From TrEMBL:
Domain TonB-dependent receptor plug: 97-212
Keyword tags: Cell outer membrane, Membrane, TonB box, Transmembrane, Transmembrane beta strand, Transport
Main location: membrane
Topology of this chain in the membrane: Multi-pass membrane protein
Source domain of life: Bacteria
A Pfam family recorded for this sequence: CarbopepD_reg_2
Subcellular location: Cell outer membrane
InterPro entries linked: Beta-barrel_TonB, Beta-barrel_TonB_sf, CarboxyPept-like_regulatory, Plug_dom, Plug_dom_sf, TonB-dep_OMP_SusC/RagA, TonB-dep_OMP_SusC/RagA_CS, TonB-dep_rcpt-like
SUPFAM superfamilies membership: Carboxypeptidase regulatory domain-like, Porins
Name by which UniProt lists this protein: SusC/RagA family TonB-linked outer membrane protein
Family per similarity comment: Belongs to the TonB-dependent receptor family.
Amino acid sequence: MLAQSTLKGTVVDKATGQPIPGVNVNVQGNPGGTSTGFDGNFELSNVKNGNKITVSFIGYKTTTIDYNGQKTLNISLEEDTNQLKEVVVQVGYGTVKKKDATGSVSQISAKEFNKGINVTPESLISGRISGVNVVTGGAPGARADIRIRGGSSLNASNEPLIVLDGLPLSNTVPNGSTSILSTIDPNDIESFTVLKDASAAAIYGSRAANGVIVITTKKGAKGGVKVNFSSQVGINTVANTVDVMSADQFRELVNTKGTADQKALLGNANTNWQEEIFHTALTTNNNISASGTLFNKLPVRLSVGNIDNPGILRNTSFERTTTSLSLNPVLFDNHLKIDINGNLSFGKNQFQDEGPVISSAIGFDPTQSVYDTNSRYGGYFEWLDPNGNLPLLPNRNPVARLNQDERRATSTRKWGNVRLDYKLHFFEDLRAVVEAGIDRFDSKGYTQVSTQSALGFQPHPFSSPDYVNLGNYSSYTDALQNKNLNAYFNYTKDLGKIKIDATAGYNYQLFQRERYQSGETRQPNPNEDVITEPDINLQSYFGRLNLGYDSRYLLTLNYRRDGTSRFSENNRWGNFAGGAFAWNVSEEAFLKDNTTFSTLKLRVGYGTTGQQDISAQYDYLRRVTLGTIQSQYVFGNTIYATARPEGYNENIKWEELAEMNLGIDYGFFNDKITGSINYFDKKSTDLLAEIAVPDGANIRNQGFFNIGNVRTKGVEFSIQSDIVKSDNLNWNVAFNTTYIDQEISQLGITVPGFQGYLAGDNIAGGQGNRILINSVGYAPNSFFVYEQLYDADKRPIAGAYVDRNADGIIDTADRYRAGKTAPDYTFGLFSTLNYKKFDFTMNWRASVGNKIFDNVSSNLGYSDAGLRRQTDLANVSSDYFNTGFTFEDNGTQRYLSDYFIKDASFIKLDNITLGYTFDKSLIKTASLRFTAGIQNVFILTKYDGLDPERFNGIDNNVYPRARTFLFGVNANF
């Protein structure tokens, strides 16, 4: 019998010499083993001469040592860069190596993020991941619209579920804030993991129908304390403005077509109103962080950041100050891992009534001066009636609106998560994990209109002896709270070539909101109100099983049972499941040592997810609500509040999504070239849509119903390559493209002649006109228009449209669908070039097949738009020179002409950045990197409007995206 000994030792990082906690130390072929503690020390018993000792840890190369009676071992582990790339969060409640993932999962880490001044986190991944479309706005801190594989619903939310350090976030934003991610400093983010197909996302169940984005923030690192400081300055400039008539062109129009009264209204100025409301602004972005291990025991990271982002529209701004703290201790000989994340964010916003302000600047008479010394409205020019009264219809002076209408808000957001991960001492294959998180988001703000503003409350006309301008004032508060609890068990076991990973648990989430609005306090009977919204409660039971055989055959099965308070007891619970299989062909004997096909994995998956995220909290209940001060009865001297029954739908239920995914992951030449190809086919059924209700069918005229199906098919392709990799020169290029085909296949019970449900907001021009429609056989949000007729010179003929149904009448039956807002293809290209200490990055995006409605030209592109009245003038879109349109024909048809549907395809260079690094040559204690770059560099497009990239497909009074010239410095100590 061989003597058995106890082996002691220490495991350290080869590069830094710092101890590594949590390293697995085992006798090869034997069960059990041990792991290192905080100080990197271990003690392994029952070791015999001739045994092989394996030392392994995620992110490091495994080391095998022959045991020949040594009493102690000092082991240095070397980082495995290939293995580090493989670690991804796959589906909630766990991690998996990329090579073992069975679903469609994409990850992008900090070093791969888009460069430049990224005010909000969404811009870090714009154009970087196939199947993920990110459209940012122009206003400071504006939310981005994110769609994964085109979304899945008509009226329910199409936003993906965002999970931040284990805490699922709400998509609801309080008044006075811009987005759910605007409070997060992008400098604190370590990685984004996107779960795109239903087999990967099904474990998130009810909230995963639109995909899942898992955000992981930076944590404390092993070793000594490291300090990072970054500072950026950006000069935001106006890249483009709307093309309208100049002062001289407008004078010629009025003198040619105007009446004597209108000619007399012309001024002597030459005012470019868009130049008056836009300006160049300076953005600053600073962040400092410290991370390391305190007392060689406690990994910690502390970060403080501030960004001040004035908008290019005057008197708009976004400021954010953040503090983030992460503690990650490991206790009880590596059996209890604790992750504590705490975050505090303060925001300051200055808003404007952007649409009306920009609309006024586009349409205001360019022959008028900004100022009028005789004006009672703060010295600003305003249109007045001959008797001095303020008319109702003309545009107000846009500069006056900016300076006399103050809209400010502040917000405080506190969120955090505590995670306890306990590996049972008596059964180390089993872990018990509990996560508790809270997200509290409070805001308050006000709108104050000057007593000298034309927008102020003026109860009597100026001609009255009682004239007074009281201005306006209103305020509000808003408080949102999101509580989350996860509790689950995870069992892992290696049985020779078979690997088992099983998870089962419970999730509880509660959303609460209370808000206050003062009403207009300077007006009679302000509509003051406190609104306490009904709580939304989600509860779930979930499970997942991962089986692997010899790293070649991989199977994932998951299930989730979700309950929501939005539906009745009969429809409350939904069951969602998914399964995926992957074959690692490159692990087979015939390919294992093949350097040409270094990676080849085939994947197939199918899963179902659900949707319940609609604006109506308790639409299934029969409710009675009390009326406001606007709906009261007076009997004698007593005022009585009214009580009115609300519409309801007791049969409302889950919208469901079923999705199939086929995928290939590939790598060539020892993974010098890598990428993936995915085909997906998903079908949404029982769509939750807010639709019109026939008279008499309900006690409301509009509400939520389950009405139809949408089918979405597509292909995703991505490839990246280290084209050059040497000591002095490295060049990496990544490219992705996505094709999506989406079609509504059913819209419930309809009647003959039914063309679909109109969608979207009203467009500018006419009354109540909507130009988007959801129709069977077409893509969601298709343009619904009249077909314009043209003359021999290809100019549109005013009032002439195609009688498509040949009934001799031009009416709504002749409208047709002319394209859609969403693109057919999207592309992304990212290139990084490093030469010695220089680095150069650039990021391109492209979109093909999407259309846009030029609402500026449709609303202002005819002469009567400027000569509508005898008492004021308004500017006209330059498109008038292309059409010669004079008047509104048949009331609304001109507004809905397909002439204004334009090709919105584009190629855009999002940013370029040049950097240079000084490796402790300037400062001995720090490495410095200096950068310079441009964001929103240029765009190539046929569209002659402001910007073809408009998420809702309607170009009207849009806050333009700035072109930013940036300079930065980054220091690592």
